[in-house]
Amino acid sequence: MAVTDHVDFPTFMEGVKKRNPHQPEFVQAVQEVAEDIFDFIEDKEDYHSEQILRRIAEPDRVVSFRVCWEDDAGNIRVQRGWRVQNNNAIGPYKGGIRFHPSVNESVLKFLAFEQTFKNALTGLPMGGGKGGSNFNPKGKSVREIMRFCQSFMTELYRHIGADVDVPAGDIGVGGREIGFMFGQYKRITGEFTGVLTGKGLEWGGSLIRTEATGYGAVYFLENMLKHRGESLDGKTAVISGSGNVATHAAEKIVQLGGKVLTLSDSGGFIHDPDGLTQEKIDWVKTHKTHRRGRISEYADHFTGATFHPDATPWNVPCDLALPCATQNELLGPDARALVENGCTAVSEGANMPSDLEAVHVFKDAKIMFAPGKAANAGGVAVSGLEMSQNSERRAWKEDELQAMLHDIMDGIHDRCITYGDQGGGYVDYVKGANIAGFKKVADAMLAFGVV
Ligand code: NDP
Prior knowledge:
Order of helices and strands: HHHHEEEHEHEHHEHEEHHEEHEHEHHHH
Bound molecules: NADPH dihydro-nicotinamide-adenine-dinucleotide phosphate
Shape: globular
Number of domains: 3
Low-confidence stretches: none
Strand order of the largest sheet: 9-8-7-6-10-11-12
Mean pLDDT: 96
CATH class of the largest domain: Alpha Beta
């Protein structure tokens, strides 16, 4: 006779902690989802008897490998690389590659877990994965980065494929690195397939992929405001980060009539009370991407702006906040400062930038809070569209893709409302996103039986 295991939430989390020692980011990500899922599945026997949540919280596989490369001085360097394939119930594994010294198995498992729900929310057929290395691209020459990317792909290629697992960029991995990795994949296999997204436009990339995550996070914000009868026009916004997501979020806010007051990097933040203009944002993009500069130099370049070393921007009074740098960059006290200073909406451009305490502060204050798995899904959505274009051997026009991105972000917002509307005009977007993402993956898993 089958034994139906109805464990309660604390017991479930105890098990997750025990099975994943020293992996706090992964445990945190599972806890945030499980808090909502336990209520939802309480009366749904199939999800219990088939142990769906327990199975989603165990990656299909974690591949770990050595990456050797030679630096410009002739020294042999050894890094560790990973690919975490979390779940492919609704499509090939899909998720970015991150190069940053803070990368470890816990960080990549949390990102792959989150990616599973995010990808389901887009409505496109993509499973969840994530990969990367503790390689630090800062200060490396272009040749060193090329040699590293080639060595990384020399192992990764055997685990990926256009219908198996399709990686993309993330922190430290932009168009240049995707180019080096795609070149190596093509060299080893002899195949030109859509095995990576974020490719250059000349060789299979999609228009608006670069802009999609930041733009999408602002479209989601716009949807939340519209749902309450408000708009972005005239609102002040505080943004962290100064990379791909942050600069494109800033650009879209300015285009829609908002005023962006801050950007940041790991050295601190700049505060520009006059607001960023398109010209200033373009300067940041060139400065950070092509000159590999620091955000502190913004304050030397633009009068009226100030640089605040070793600080985050969350104490600057604002209407809107967009954390767009990295995980756990917005903590409980930061969230309290934002709420006390009148912030009414938060849209997470980064993955899990708010820690659990901060999420609870936002929920208790009942402000509009869009978790990353909903708000930043625009990037992977356009990656999904890049896969479709590669399969069709054609390229869609920019206005077609813009319309599709807008439509996908609207769809994610609707799905969050379906499961997150708490009545009285308050939507719990965390709950909505978690349940909508979970349900799609869970129902596919039920169809497959125990595999
Ligand atoms: P980039 O590498 O382009 O930029 C990252 C930015 O965050 C830089 O300004 C960097 O500063 C800052 N940053 C990184 N680590 C830290 C840290 N520990 N403390 C403070 N600042 C830090 O990355 P993206 O813009 O692509 O990614 C940003 C976030 O968005 C990540 O969480 C990523 O997972 C998420 N995301 C990205 C998507 C994409 O399409 N690119 C899609 C969905 C989510 P510095 O220069 O000093 O390192």
